[in-house]
Design goal:
This protein is 39% helix and 21% strand. A hairpin with a 4-residue loop joins strand 8 and strand 9.
């Protein structure tokens, strides 16, 4: 029986259940690389340091709004094809398998497909995020936590007592909040994976949000190795979060909409 720790939060009236499996974080390789840091961060999230006010403010940016949008016709499709062609994004599905992809990644895709079909059969409609993520956390031994709250910090927010400064404060050019769908451990290179469940399969539209989460965790935990994944029940897209700073600006300038607020924000993380 897996022991799952749970803490409930609310943002804009919507309930989020932040959950983690603590004993997985204490396995030797995980604990040494980032497991102990994550547990300390979870404890901070569950303390009175958690800035509930900014999570419920409509004036604070939400990572869920960081999208690739308002591009030229077929812009998303053209950018997706170029990112795949130039190996900035790796796709994994039944037709595309890779020997260097870890079991944790391969199992994530297989498990999502199985439980999507089970829940669809039971409910007679497509399941939402919650049931899928809960099953992954329970059954995928490389999964660490789900619905992890994150927030940035600015000097002004500290001065105005909106946020308390801690050793986990992630300074940025603007305040923003978010919830990471899933964190996993990659046993191949002892790295952490920031994963986003995307049943609509438009991985590129939400790539800025997921990559921002990756940059945040990279800075928060002072890591060199980190990966991002967007996944549906049929496909999985794997990329380095630095793609949002190194490659995406070039493509959005080519295909129509360079003036997106997150483009300037990610430079400050």
């Amino acid at each position: 029986m897996v022991e799952i720790e749970t803490r409930k939060f609310y943002q804009g009236g919507v309930e989020y259940e932040f959950k983690w499996v603590e004993n997985r974080h204490h396995l030797p390789d995980i604990a040494k690389n980032f497991g102990n840091k994550l547990i300390k961060y979870y404890n901070l999230v569950c303390s009175n340091v958690y800035p509930e006010k900014i999570f419920n403010s409509k004036e604070i940016l939400r990572c869920s709004s960081f999208k690739l949008k308002n591009l030229d016709k077929d812009g998303l499709k053209k950018i997706s094809l170029e990112l795949l062609k130039n190996n900035y994004v790796t796709i994994v599905d039944d037709k595309n398998t890779h020997n260097d992809v870890s079991k944790s990644i391969d199992n994530l895709l297989k498990m999502t497909k199985i439980w999507y079909d089970i829940f669809y059969y039971q409910m007679k409609k497509p399941p939402k995020h919650g049931p899928i993520l809960n099953k992954i956390l329970e059954l995928n031994k490389n999964s660490l936590s789900i619905e992890i709250p994150i927030w940035s910090t600015t000097p002004e927010a500290i001065i105005n007592n909106l946020i308390q400064k801690t050793k986990f404060s992630c300074m940025a050019g603007e305040l923003f909040t978010g919830h990471i769908d899933l964190l996993l451990y990659d046993e191949v290179d002892n790295s952490i994976i920031v994963a986003d469940y995307n049943p609509e399969k438009h991985f590129l539209r939400s790539l800025p949000q997921v990559a921002t989460y990756g940059l945040f965790i990279k800075k928060l935990l002072k890591l060199d190795k980190i990966k991002c994944i967007s996944f549906s029940k049929d496909k999985l897209w794997l990329y380095n979060p630095e793609i949002i700073r190194d490659q995406i600006p070039y493509y959005i300038e080519r295909f129509g909409n360079p003036n997106l607020i997150w483009r300037y924000l990610v430079k400050t993380i």
